[in-house]
Design a protein that fits this description.
It contains 18 helices and 22 strands. The protein has a 9-stranded mixed sheet, covered by helices on one side. The chain has a 5-stranded parallel sheet with strand order 11-10-9-14-15. The chain has a 4-stranded antiparallel sheet with strand order 1-2-3-4, with helices on one face. It is about 35% helix and about 25% strand. By secondary structure, the protein is an alpha/beta fold. The protein folds into 3 domains: about 60 residues, no CATH class; about 200 residues, Rossmann fold, CATH 3.40.50.740; about 170 residues, Dimethylsulfoxide Reductase, domain 2, CATH 3.40.228. Helix 4 packs across helix 12 and helix 9 packs parallel to helix 12.
Length: about 450
């Protein structure tokens, strides 16, 4: 870790001495910006340099923290020792016939690996938050593959970039700066790239791009298949497809076809609408077919900073990218049956271990109602909607700020996370907590 002393100006304008930790990786979104300078005063983070608004909120904000382990007795949570909370968590898993584990996208890969081993011991199932975001991407790429590239390759070579169903200005604020519009590569200047946004509404990303193509809600699949058909030399006998004029689709296709290096970044507007995984299958197939004319790649815009990591770790350990069930003699991989939402909706799980997630705020109502009926163990730095009815609550350290570890960027490049400050007194890392639960189990 590189630490040096600097002279900085405080808010009041006084000269103060502060430590600065350089080249810190931001543990917020899947872009994993690794050029953040973090300034420390009296052992606490005072400000950061080069971070976006989301990054600043992660490092500097005074968000509520879970201060101590707690166990529910009746309607109230009561503070207990760390050891007692670990024993109660192990008891919940031990007594369950089919425990389920969900979250993991805001943890290190080291903790994720231990979580998979824990659920093997508990004979349960495990999955990540991609169940409600990029699971269709995983399914589609298993079916048909996808031409991919690193973000550095895109920055250095891409002269045509398409953001389809994604809004990086608000979801990944430095994506334009580090990868496309304002990023100069070895072979292409950022200002010379042609950037188009395809979405159902004109987002902030669309406003600062070269072209905005408005597709009707649920029309992505038809538009993508029409472009694939035109690429094969077929004539579309319609004025518009998916709400987009055929002429516009043809012009967009022509730019991609004539590009030296084109890249399609896709987001939840593709994965969570209409045909879902078939949308992704059509998009990645279009990218593959464009390689007959030039170079074209596709990259998913992953949300949580290590949601891509869970898929990597689970594949190492089980042969499958997630949503695996260890209740039988063999590993069962069934994404349409083994996601936490599926299990809860049909009453298939009788206990939940939640690590770095808030399903009460994001799951369908039917799944949340079932979640309230089963024992819940929550491991998280911050209180949230799920904390209100969790049976065991264990505070954890912030990975990339209070604990080191490894994470995978949206293009599946592993990045090391640093520890910048100490966690609150008595707070352990996710890795330590899961290891201790395994020991107690």
């Amino acid at each position: 870790m590189t630490i040096c002393l600097v002279s900085s100006v405080s808010v009041a304008g006084e000269r103060t001495g502060a430590e600065v930790v350089k080249n810190v990786t931001c543990p917020y979104c899947g872009l994993l910006c690794d050029d953040i300078d973090v300034y420390l005063e009296d052992g606490e983070i005072s400000r950061i340099k080069r971070g976006c608004g989301l990054s600043n909120a992660k490092f500097v904000s005074e968000a509520d923290r879970i201060e101590s382990p707690a166990v529910r007795e009746g309607e109230e949570l009561h503070e207990v020792s760390y050891g007692e909370a670990i024993e109660r968590a192990a008891e919940v898993l031990r007594e369950a016939k089919r425990p389920d584990c969900y979250g993991w996208s805001s943890c290190s890969v080291e903790a994720q690996g231990l979580g998979i081993e824990l659920m093997k011991e508990a004979r349960g199932s495990i999955g990540s938050t991609s169940a409600v975001c990029h699971l269709p991407s995983v399914l589609a790429m298993q079916d048909c593959g996808a031409p991919k590239a690193t973000l550095e390759q895109v920055r250095n070579r891409a002269d045509v970039v398409i953001y389809w169903g994604s809004n990086p200005v608000e979801a990944h604020p430095r994506h334009f700066e580090r990868v496309t519009r304002r990023a100069d590569g070895y072979f292409v200047k950022g200002k010379d790239r042609y950037i188009a946004v395809v979405d159902v509404r004109e987002t902030l990303s669309a406003k600062i791009s070269d072209e905005f193509v408005k597709v009707e809600p649920g029309g992505d699949y038809e538009a993508l298949q029409a472009m694939r058909s035109m690429l094969q030399g077929n004539e579309i006998e319609a004025d518009e497809v998916g709400g987009v004029p055929v002429e516009t689709l043809g012009e967009l296709l022509g730019r991609m076809k004539d590009a030296d290096f084109a890249c399609i970044f896709w987001g939840l507007g593709v994965t969570m609408s209409g045909a879902k995984h078939r949308n992704v299958e059509a998009l990645t197939s279009l990218a593959k077919e464009l390689n007959d004319y030039g170079r074209c790649v596709s990259v998913p815009m992953r949300g949580h900073f290590n949601v891509a990591g869970f898929g990597q770790v689970c594949t190492w350990k089980t042969g499958f990218p997630g949503f695996v069930d260890f209740t039988g003699d063999e590993i069962n991989y069934a994404p349409g049956e083994n996601t936490s939402v599926d299990l809860l909706r049909r009453g298939g799980s009788d206990a939940m271990l939640l690590v770095g997630s808030d399903p009460a705020a994001h799951f369908p109502l039917r799944a949340v109602k079932r979640l309230r009926e089963v024992p819940v163990v929550q491991v998280d730095p911050h209180p949230n909607a799920t904390t209100r009815f969790a049976d065991v609550v264990i505070p954890s350290a912030l990975v990339g700020i209070e604990a080191e570890g490894t994470a995978y960027r949206m293009d599946t490049v592993p990045i090391r996370l640093k520890k910048v400050v100490d966690p609150p007194e008595g707070v352990r890392t996710d890795e330590r907590i899961i290891r201790d639960v395994m020991g107690a189990l």
